[in-house]
Amino acid sequence: MIMAKNYEEEAKAILKLVGENNVDSVTHCQTRLRFVVKDRKAIDDKALEKLPEVKGVFYGSGQYQVIIGTGVVNDVYAAIAKLGTVNAIYGKDDADTAGKTSNEYKTVVQRLMAMLSGIFIPIIPVIAATGLFLGLKSAATNAQVLKLFGAVPSDIPASLTSVISVLTDTVFAFLPALIVWSTLRYFKGTPIIGIVIGLMLVSPILPNAYSVADGSAKAIMLFGWLPVVGSQGSVLTALVAGFIGAKLELFFRRHMPNVLEQILTPFLTMLVTFAIMIMGVGPIVHAVESGMLVGVEAVIHLPFGIGGFLIGAAYPL
Residue ranges of the PTS EIIC type-1 domain (predicted)? Predict the structure, then answer.
């Protein structure tokens, strides 16, 4: 109870120094509170840095970031949201909070970076955990490590390897589903609808995109001419599906009679979004994604370090 009270006082102190009327919205990542503010110059950085839980402050990509630290930031943010005096968008369902930006967002790139941050931050913990699983699997199956115990990789039962693969492969196999969920959530759609749409995109009924690419499987030819494959590994497709799904859901909820809204809104949202993705937008987005990959690879391989210079120069954008 004492800690909760301290976080409430800390939250009040932070809001006082940032300025409640100066805040358009606030969210958080794993270590920082992220404020979209009207006037960055109105904030007293030095006073904020003197607060007990504040480790530092930083301004970038149109966000005023207050560094709190892992774990504690969740409690401080919860205290800020509980006060109800500013627009806390992380985990809230108010559609009016979606897409709010500061006047200091000077470029489209900055707006895009803020959006991507809001979408991917909730997914980072499970990706990080999967990375740890992969590291442990690599160490446990390493020939040199096994040699210390008088064993070789072939001694590991195939059944055990399969079970371990569930830990290491699940997140990446269903990553598009996670991205659609988070995107729909960011744009204030219903998260469970996002999960289902995402799972549709990577359904095992559809030919695996990787298998189609290496020739071991063939695309489903819808109507005899439209190739349909899964969206495994396609981040951009998932982002577009989540955005379309959220906008469609909000549209249907506004125009659907109350007596039908509960059933028909999810039905139409999932149906129309999936149809749009497999019958047009999905293949186009996948082609754009492939082109972007080719372009980035071409830049990376430019001679004399030019590629690294260009990527480094673009990073602050």
Answer: 127-317
